[in-house]
Amino acid sequence: MCQSIVVLGQVVGEQPHRIELWAGTVSSEFAFKAWTIFLATTQQRAPSGLSYVAVGGARVSPDLLFQAREWGLPVYEGYGLTECGSVVSLNRPGDDGINVGRPLDHLAVRIDDGEIRVEGRGLLGYVGDRSTGQAGIIAPVREFATGDLGRFGADGHLHLSGRRKNVLITSWGRNIAPEWVESILLAQPAIAQAVVTGDGKPWLSAVLVASPGVDRASLEAAVQRANNALPDYTRIGRWLAAAPFSTTNGLATGNGRPIRSAILSHHAAELAALYREREAADVVS
């Protein structure tokens, strides 16, 4: 079943135009991508009064950002976590780059063994955590280990690599952040959702959700275009098409983000079959 959503208030004539999406919550990243596709399809530009659009929550491909700006969307990528009071760093007009921007002034951000750590007075800890400080007073968390991998550029901007727990190590010994590969896949309009896997394998595979109306041939062409933009060791060797990840089937969070572990578990047999088929084909050839 599908539902219609207004694409962030974009209005044409008397009525707002709509894009058909499956029922359920979609992520802000998907909504941003849908708006870009809408503008490109209808050959329109974003409203002239729009001066700033912040995007984040998942890694965004530079190609998708550039596409959005071509259609008048003033998009800037940022980074944040709920535990940190949301926004940690942000690109801004005149201080922009292919990264997640400069940390906000009220936070101290450092890199420890590749992991991003954030310190600030807004970090109050978790509900139910009774860790106490002096005189029995609950001690606020001063530094938060985010679990995200990153680095600082020479300009002071923060660069994200991916989640430490998600890093894939192939049988060739390559360390790959799946979020990077997924961002390249998701820059393709034909691909609505993507989860990449391949830990301990010689090549990567992916579980893909096609955008509405996209057939398998178009999805295959999209994967090939994405592969052409990736180094050979990060390319998708095989993939499978799946139903949308949603809260209904337990494969997405409340804000629409794919739940990686649940998706890989749900499709474990199909993914294993992809590797067996490829290995058998390699032996025959």
Characterize the structure shown.
By secondary structure, the chain is α+β, with helices and mostly antiparallel strands. The protein has helices spanning 28-42, 62-70, 178-186, 216-228, 260-266, 268-284; strands spanning 2-12, 15-22, 53-55, 75-81, 86-90, 102-103, 108-112, 115-119, 143-152, 158-163, 168-169, 175-176, 191-197, 204-210, 236-241. The protein is built from 6 helices and 15 strands. The longest helix has 17 residues, at 268-284. It is globular, with a radius of gyration of 20 Å.
Element layout with pairings:
Layout: E1 2-12, E2 15-22, H1 28-42, E3 53-55, H2 62-70, E4 75-81, E5 86-90, E6 102-103, E7 108-112, E8 115-119, E9 143-152, E10 158-163, E11 168-169, E12 175-176, H3 178-186, E13 191-197, E14 204-210, H4 216-228, E15 236-241, H5 260-266, H6 268-284
Parallel strand pairs: 3-4, 14-15
Antiparallel strand pairs: 1-2, 4-5, 5-6, 7-8, 8-9, 9-10, 11-12, 13-14
